[in-house]
Specification:
Length: 122
């Protein structure tokens, strides 16, 4: 339980960030950084290679923001996974508890699949 709560706290302190090009609406992952210090926008050449832009295309509209979808996905997965594992592993005395824990784990598994699909899009 403590490990799960620690993981939840770390995911809130170090959220995922995105680089976004407003000209093309393309997005690229900027990694995980502390909540109050977003990643810096890289040099023009690095951003062009990151976004696969030609030398003639501009990168002046690229900005950095939190990836709200990934962050929400992490929250949902952890909020179902932590109690589900706790109930299934440590509180199996009642069948209803075991079923509720299993249901939480199934929901976490479904959202994990959706999360992996979202990551595959990038």
């Amino acid at each position: 339980m403590l490990a799960g709560l620690s993981l939840l706290i770390l995911s809130e302190l170090f959220p995922p960030w995105l680089y976004e090009d407003e000209n093309t609406s393309a997005v690229r992952s900027a990694g995980y950084h502390f909540v109050t210090s977003p990643p810096k926008v890289r040099s023009s050449e690095e951003m062009k290679s990151l976004f696969a832009l030609r030398d003639s295309e501009t990168t002046q509209f690229i900005w950095v923001h939190k990836d709200g979808i990934r962050l929400m996905g992490q929250r949902i997965i952890l909020l179902f996974l932590i109690p589900g594992l706790w109930v299934v592993l440590f509180d199996r005395r009642r069948a209803l508890n075991f079923v509720a824990g299993g249901l939480c784990l199934c929901i976490a598994l479904i959202f994990s699949g959706l999360y992996i699909f979202y990551l595959a899009l990038f």
